[in-house]
Structures are given as structure tokens and as C-alpha cells.
Write a structure and sequence with these properties.
Blueprint: H1 7-24, H2 43-54, H3 59-67, H4 71-82, H5 86-99, H6 116-128
Helix pairs in contact: 3-5, 4-5
Length: 129
């Protein structure tokens, strides 16, 4: 018996013919080009953010804004105090030393274990009472 007459040859022939026919058939499924994804941020907003990040407020500016009651500057000062960066710690110590003369009517408390937002909310509630 010749290989061309064997069952395996017939099977291979039928299988390759089937595959060839399947490739010729066009599928109903096809991929279309989609729309490009929009930018996630506005370019002008990104530029504003970059400019604000580049600004490093001086100790004098921190002290004047904190004593004027500017809450965002107080929050930034708290972040400097909590930072482990040596430059931030030096700046935070300078801010604390400069703010101490204004602290004669205040009580210093230490709060640990809660998030920054919760500390700000706690300080605001203590301030209002």
C-alpha cells in the first residue's frame, strides 16, 4: 500500500483542504479602527500644576499666611513637619520657631495614627468650639 492511499494521507488532505476553505471564508467578526483616546488632563491645567509644584514658598511666606489663618498653608506646613526629607525638616523647624511667639494662647497636642484629612477636620472642629 502506497502512502497516498493510506488513511493518514486522506486525513491530512481533507484537513488541509478544510483549513484552506476556512481561510477563504470571510468572518462576520472583524476589527475596526477606533477613535483615539482623549487626553486625560487639560494642557493648561497641567501647566498650572507644574508651575505650582515648582513654587517653593519661603519661611516668611509660610509664617505670614499661617498667622493670617490660611488653612492650605497650615496643611502644607504640617506636611513639611511630617516629612522625612532633611530639607523639609529644616524648613519645618524654622517655621515652627517663627510661629512660636504667636502660640501663647494655644495648646500643642500630638495626634498620631489618623489621616491628614481627619487631622484637619479635627483641628477645624476644635478651632470652632
Amino acid at each position: 500500500m502506497c502512502f497516498y492511499e493510506s488513511r493518514s494521507f486522506n486525513f491530512i488532505l481533507k484537513f488541509t483542504t478544510y483549513i484552506f476553505r476556512m481561510k477563504l471564508k470571510k468572518s462576520a467578526l472583524h476589527e475596526k479602527k477606533g477613535v483615539s483616546a482623549p487626553e486625560t488632563t487639560n494642557k493648561t491645567a497641567a501647566e498650572k500644576i507644574k508651575l505650582n509644584r515648582a513654587k517653593h514658598s519661603s519661611v516668611d511666606e509660610f509664617v505670614s499666611k499661617i498667622t493670617a489663618g490660611d488653612i492650605p498653608f497650615l496643611s502644607r506646613a504640617i506636611t513639611l513637619v511630617e516629612s522625612t526629607n532633611e530639607v523639609h525638616q529644616e524648613k519645618a523647624n524654622a517655621i515652627l520657631e517663627r510661629c512660636l511667639p504667636y502660640a501663647n494662647k494655644s495648646v500643642r497636642i500630638g495626634i498620631t495614627g489618623i489621616l491628614m484629612l481627619e487631622r484637619v477636620l479635627l483641628s477645624r472642629s476644635l478651632e470652632s468650639s
